[in-house]
């Protein structure tokens, strides 16, 4: 995914995909972690089109709470 410098600066950064996923799991919105080309860290996006579902969301869909 292409990231604009302004977006990169504004967004929360995570050092690892696992950190980003931990936050996405607790979020109200469906969020996807992605690797940023600019800072080489991870951000979350709510633009989920074309992105594969993370493991926790697959599990959630199989067994809704
Ligand atoms: Zn970034």
What topology, given as strand order, has the largest sheet? Answer: 1-2
Associated small molecules: zinc ion
Distance between the termini: 31 Å
The topology string of helices and strands comes to HHEEH
Give a structural overview.
By secondary structure, the protein is an alpha+beta fold. It has one domain (5-62). The chain is built from 3 helices and 2 strands, in the order H-H-E-E-H. Strands 1-2 form a two-stranded antiparallel sheet.
Secondary structure elements and pairings:
Elements: H1 5-10, H2 17-26, E1 32-35, E2 42-45, H3 55-62
Antiparallel strand pairs: 1-2
Bound molecules: zinc ion (ZN).
Zinc ion binds next to loops.
In short:
This protein is an alpha+beta fold. It has helices spanning 5-10, 17-26, 55-62; strands at 32-35, 42-45.
Features:
65 residues; binds zinc ion; two-stranded antiparallel ribbon; alpha+beta; 2 strands; 3 helices
């Amino acid at each position: 995914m292409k990231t604009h410098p302004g977006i990169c600066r504004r967004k929360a950064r995570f050092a690892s995909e696992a950190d980003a996923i931990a936050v996405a799991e607790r979020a109200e919105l469906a969020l996807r972690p992605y690797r940023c080309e600019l800072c080489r860290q991870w951000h979350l996006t709510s633009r989920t089109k074309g992105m594969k579902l993370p493991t926790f969301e697959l599990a959630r869909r199989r067994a809704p709470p």
